[in-house]
Amino acid sequence: MFEKSFEYLEMMLLAKIIAPGVGNKGAVLKKQGILEKCYDLGKNLALDISLK
After folding, report:
1. Based on CB atoms within 10 Å of each CB, which residue in 15, 31, 34, 40 is the most buried?
2. How far is Cα 47 from Cα 51, in angstroms, rounded to an integer?
3. Model pLDDT, residue 14
4. What confidence category does residue 51 fall into, taking pLDDT thresholds of 50, 70 and 90?
């Protein structure tokens, strides 16, 4: 559904991060691996944009 929404809006989905078990507020703070993936993704996106 999420991907279809992006297609409809003609937006490009660059990456996905799956975060199981983080339904409650703050639960992701206990998932160091997910936080690292999010940080790396943001860093790479920022670097890619600054190079254009």
Report:
1. 34
2. 6
3. 84
4. low
Q: Tokens in use for 11?
A: 């937006």
3-30 core/surface letters (b: 16 or more CB in 10 A; e: else): eeeeeeeeeeeeeeeeeeeeeeeeeeee
pLDDT in tens, 25-38: 999 999 999 999 99
Place of tokens 């929404």: 5
Residues 38 and 17: beta-carbon distance below 8 Å: yes
Q: CA separation (Å) from 9 to 13, 42, 51?
A: 11, 22, 25
Of 38, 1, 39, nearest in space to 18 by CA: 38
